[in-house]
Design goal:
It is a single chain. With 258 residues, this protein is of the alpha+beta class. It has one domain. Helix content is 23%, strand content 27%. It is built from five helices and 13 strands. The protein has a seven-stranded mixed β-sheet. Strands 1, 4, 6, 7, 10 and 11 form a six-stranded antiparallel β-sheet that branches. Strand 6 and strand 7 form a beta hairpin.
Length: 258
């Protein structure tokens, strides 16, 4: 009996630790991207993904750590729109897309890794490639406004639900309206969100203004429903799965008289 109790405690502790880690992993970052009506795709993708040709993309900013609400409202952020799969360094015709009524093609874009005005003294500055860059990309200014507020949520848990959060408190947003019907077959867009001094790699995601801030690569976005199919399990589903496995293990032990 003592052996059974020991095993039960061990399994429960493991499950609790897993749930706590899952909770920590889903904490809201300073910057996120959501697309109205989109889905969150996990696996090797870990992005908000839309299959629509017209959609509303929201840049989300949430005060946290060293970043206050006034910091968010006074700082200029950037949305990069990158062509995928990777193209370049020579221009490649991929068609066009529109943002807020303005049409963009390869002639309007830069080749490389954003941001455009990263540390001049550090050639390594910029977003980590995360299999997206180097490619052609467009960089648009993001300006959060105190009039554009949303309740705080994590896009990993509730991707595509931005409409339900508009007008709430805790976060700010900027809206970009897209039409990608002009893209040629085989091309899609990938979206990243960052400030103007993003450091190389993920060191900027801790909220240190001296290093730069960007939406973690698990909170970016892209177009193209054909890219990926693995869905992220909801935390509640993970808990039920863990309890189910624990129950099966206990039943097996009792059946064998352990």
């Amino acid at each position: 009996m003592n052996k059974i109790l020991t095993n039960v405690r061990s399994a429960a502790a493991t499950l609790l630790t897993g749930l706590l880690v899952s909770g920590l992993a889903s904490a809201e970052p300073i910057l996120q991207i959501d697309i109205d009506g989109a889905s969150y795709v996990g696996g090797t993708e870990e992005s908000v993904v839309t299959s629509d040709t017209t959609f509303d993309l929201y840049a989300l900013g949430t005060p946290s750590g060293n970043v206050s609400a006034s910091d968010l409202l006074e700082t200029v952020y950037y949305l990069s729109i990158a062509v995928i799969p990777q193209i370049g360094p020579g221009p490649v015709e991929f068609g066009s897309f529109t943002v807020d009524g303005t049409t963009y093609g390869v002639g309007d874009m830069s080749y490389g890794t954003p941001p455009l005005d990263a540390y001049d003294a550090n050639p390594e500055a910029g977003l980590a490639p995360h299999d997206i860059f180097e490619t052609y990309y467009l960089q648009l200014i993001v300006g959060f406004s105190g009039a554009n507020t949303a309740s705080t949520y994590n896009v990993q848990d509730a991707a595509g639900t931005i409409a339900d959060h508009l007008g709430g408190t805790g976060s700010f947003f900027d809206l970009f309206q897209f039409d990608i019907s002009g893209l040629l077959d085989g091309f899609d867009l990938h979206f990243d969100l960052y400030d103007s001094v993003v450091a190389h790699g993920p060191t900027g995601s801790n909220g240190d203004l001296d290093e730069g801030i960007f939406a973690p690569f698990s909170h970016d976005a892209r177009t193209g429903s054909d890219c990926c199919t693995t869905k992220i399990p909801e935390p509640g589903s993970l808990a039920l799965l863990g309890m189910g496995l624990l129950g099966m293990g206990l039943r097996r032990r009792f059946a064998h008289g352990l």
